[in-house]
């Protein structure tokens, strides 16, 4: 029979020291060896902290939802990243690109669909749909708004997250158009 453990019952040898946590985060570790959900170790980033070429520009605590929000900006490229640290068991990622339309012909939506027709590392006809059949995802999609295109996904499995991240980023940045 499964039962819920409280913090005191968790083995402290299974938890990582703060130095180890920082080292693993710097190496893009997805916290595979750390408790997830309610018993997770939360990030303790502060404004001005540096992480893998990103600078933390703002931190916000959303008490009503038990979320720590971190806004980061990549120093070399200016890429903006919003990280929501919460107890949710899903690993969620969304890539949003500005795609303002210059007319009403639907070019951004057509480009969104064309980007899903193979990429540099995944030169198959439709890697997006193929991943949907083989993935443990809890959500996969793509959509075009009036001035943006978004590619979101979520999964509870860390390896599946890495696989989907690889396909999505390759599809968005190296599409075979």
CATH A-level architecture of the domain at 90-177: 2-Layer Sandwich
Question: Radius of gyration in whole Å, from Cα?
Answer: 19 Å
Distance between the termini: 53 Å
Number of strands: 8
Helix content: 10-25%
CATH class designation of the domain at 90-177 = Alpha Beta
Query: How confident overall, as mean pLDDT?
Result: 81
Count of DSSP H/I helices: 4
Indicate the structural class: alpha+beta
Order of strands, widest sheet: 1-2-3-4
Major sheet size, sense and barrel closure: 4 strands, antiparallel
CATH topology of the domain at 90-177: Cytochrome Bc1 Complex, Chain A, domain 1
Order of helices and strands: HEEEEEHHEEEH
Q: What shape does the CA trace take?
A: globular
Characteristics:
177 residues, alpha+beta, Cytochrome Bc1 Complex, Chain A, domain 1, four-stranded antiparallel beta sheet, 27% strand, disordered N terminus
Fold and architecture overview:
The protein has 177 residues and is an alpha+beta fold. It has a domain at 90-177: Metalloenzyme, LuxS/M16 peptidase-like (Cytochrome Bc1 Complex, Chain A, domain 1, 2-Layer Sandwich), CATH 3.30.830.10. It has four helices and eight strands, in the order αβββββααβββα. The strands form two sheets. A four-stranded antiparallel β-sheet has the order 1-2-3-4, with no helix packed on it. Strands 5, 6, 7 and 8 form a four-stranded antiparallel β-sheet that branches. Strand 2 and strand 3 (67-74) form a beta hairpin. The longest helix has 16 residues, at 158-173. Residues 1-14 have low confidence and may be disordered.
